[in-house]
């Protein structure tokens, strides 16, 4: 469904993507994680036709982004990081303009907008000015707009950035619903627990290179099952254990204050990239 083969991007001498290869399966929810500047947005910009690769190949539903750019573009819907809906128009008008850009007929546009506004739970606001919506509602509207032309792939570039926990969880439900309807989803996020909760598979990107790619469960299992945090000078030191017994024995040997807990995806990320993720 999404195929990247040795995808590269250089800005002058800066290598934003140093040859990334991966396959995203049809209907999969794929999370692309990395610290600031890893190359996540650059990948999405190239795949959605907003930037050109410096090398390598990419296909969306079988269409080559370089030699069949229009067909490739029709396969994907894009929700960018910053809010870019038109505040002066109504919700329905924002969706309608997008449908026109993709050559949809008037009746189809109307019908599709109704369906999508219901999906994102904004049907009762269809004729309101977008400027009156909250940040979370605007994000939902952006998702509806990206789906207007019935793309098979949805790119979500940090869809929940800056939203509070409750609003984020509501969006997670919406993202799951869209996947259940058959759309392939490629998501970037700074919130690792978001990827752990939502994604079928996760890729760790760092400095333009893939460090790991697997299911959240398999990535976590690579480093162990239990984690022991110890406060040390200058931060927290974490040790990983394959089972509870060995972790408990280690706790018994400690003198200071410690915290024993289950391994999470952030542990795997820190271990494999040597870096944290700063929202
Ligand atoms: N238009 C540009 N001109 C020059 N350098 C750029 C440009 N866009 C991105 N870069 C550089 O390419 C690298 C990858 O940037 P990108 O925005 O893809 O990272 P990211 O993983 O999305 O980061 P963030 O999490 O901060 O959004 C960075 O070093 C960035 O400074």
From TrEMBL:
Annotated ABC transporter domain residues: 2-232
Keywords: ATP-binding, Cell membrane, Membrane, Nodulation, Nucleotide-binding, Transport
InterPro entries reported for this sequence: AAA+_ATPase (IPR003593), ABC_transporter-like_ATP-bd (IPR003439), ABC_transporter-like_CS (IPR017871), ABC_transporter_ATP-binding (IPR050763), P-loop_NTPase (IPR027417)
Gene3D superfamilies per record: P-loop containing nucleotide triphosphate hydrolases
Record SMART domains: AAA
GO molecular function: ATP binding
Recorded family membership: Belongs to the ABC transporter superfamily.
Protein name: ABC transporter ATP-binding protein
Provenance organism: Dentiradicibacter hellwigii
